[in-house]
């Protein structure tokens, strides 16, 4: 009998690709949605890659509530906890993002351990294994934990760090057989399955459409969403992965390099991609007086710190594809979906 994997947040960008690759590898998949009305959208998205008939089922469960999680994990062999409630929005309350992410992870772990699930793979973020100071240079690895008490941290960085730390603390006190692995991705790009939830891919869309008039001096460690799904499955099945953190970052790429890749690789469709780099002071001024949404990126201006994925290569045999391929595949996918 094929093993069954629960993927949380099936309507999400990363979750959709995890579901697709699990089905492609012969697993039965159950995925959570916050309401039954989202089931068809997930089926439609996955169906763009393969026929999920008879092998994809659904459970209604919300990370912000206890209801539904015991049923969601019943009979499941593994859990990929990919979803994280963003919450918060523009609120100044730091707990608006932190509490849902942390409590949601603990709800999944409580249910999974009670059900005797073999292993839970939790999606964290490279930002949970980064120096608190963006000025730090060099290469860091999974042994580093971001300091959640650093007052300069954005709510997102703090929420991912505290959620992962809470998960490990829970497992340290758990005496059962369930194992935990965490995967810490960088900036996730690549093809989309649907236009309903494109996540960080929107950055590429803004570049290709010309809505981004200039390029800030920001570097991203680009990982392809397909490679991210692959490392989740490897982390789920590798005997040596139990109890480990794995960074899943790709090539460090300045946004100006991304823009050049798009401009040169898309031909006529790349004619609107900006090439002018915006000075740091200009980005900070806009963030302060015109666009508060940019405030979270201003500390990253000029950041050169990178993460090592040597551990994932050594233990999991994971090898991500080059960043330029991911960026171009992402752009072609957005264009084909008319998602600009």
TrEMBL record:
Gene3D superfamilies: NAD(P)-binding Rossmann-like Domain. Signal peptide: none annotated. Residues 5-243 form the NAD-dependent epimerase/dehydratase domain. SUPFAM superfamilies: NAD(P)-binding Rossmann-fold domains. Pfam families: Epimerase. InterPro entries: Epimerase_deHydtase (IPR001509), NAD(P)-bd_dom_sf (IPR036291), NAD(P)_dehydrat-like (IPR050425). Keywords: Oxidoreductase. Residues 132-152 are annotated as: Disordered. PANTHER family: NAD DEPENDENT EPIMERASE/DEHYDRATASE, STEROL-4-ALPHA-CARBOXYLATE 3-DEHYDROGENASE, DECARBOXYLATING. Belongs to the NAD(P)-dependent epimerase/dehydratase family. Dihydroflavonol-4-reductase subfamily. This is NAD-dependent epimerase/dehydratase family protein.
């Amino acid at each position: 009998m094929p093993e069954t994997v629960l993927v949380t947040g099936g309507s999400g960008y990363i979750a959709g690709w995890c579901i697709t690759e699990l089905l492609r590898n012969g697993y039965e998949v159950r995925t959570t949605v916050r309401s039954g009305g989202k089931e068809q959208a997930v089926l439609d998205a996955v169906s763009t890659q393969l026929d999920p008939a008879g092998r994809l089922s659904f459970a209604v469960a919300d990370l912000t509530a206890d209801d539904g999680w015991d049923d969601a994990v019943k009979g499941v062999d593994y859990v990929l906890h990919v979803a994280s409630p963003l919450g918060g929005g523009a609120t100044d309350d730091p707990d608006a993002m932190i509490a849902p992410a942390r409590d949601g992870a603990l709800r999944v772990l409580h249910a999974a351990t009670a059900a005797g699930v073999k292993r839970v793979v939790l999606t964290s973020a490279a930002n949970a294994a980064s120096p608190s100071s963006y000025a730090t240079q060099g290469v860091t690895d999974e042994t580093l934990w971001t300091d959640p008490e650093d007052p300069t941290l954005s709510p997102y960085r703090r929420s991912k760090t505290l959620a992962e730390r809470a998960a490990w603390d829970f497992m340290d006190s758990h005496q059962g057989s369930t194992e935990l692995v965490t995967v810490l991705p960088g900036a996730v790009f690549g093809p989309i399955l649907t236009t309903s939830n494109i996540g960080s891919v929107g950055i590429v869309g803004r570049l290709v459409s010309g809505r981004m008039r200039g390029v800030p001096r920001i570097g991203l460690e680009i990982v392809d969403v397909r490679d991210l799904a692959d490392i989740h499955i490897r982390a789920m099945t590798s005997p040596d992965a139990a109890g480990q953190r794995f960074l899943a970052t790709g090539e460090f790429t300045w946004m100006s390099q991304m823009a050049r890749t798009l401009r040169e690789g898309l031909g006529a469709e790349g004619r609107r991609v900006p090439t002018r780099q915006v000075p740091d002071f200009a980005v900070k001024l806009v963030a302060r007086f015109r666009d508060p949404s940019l405030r979270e990126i201003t500390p990253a201006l000029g950041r050169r710190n990178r993460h090592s994925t040597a551990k994932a290569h050594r233990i999991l045999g994971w090898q991500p594809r080059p960043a330029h391929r991911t960026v171009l595949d992402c752009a072609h996918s957005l264009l084909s979906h008319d998602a600009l």
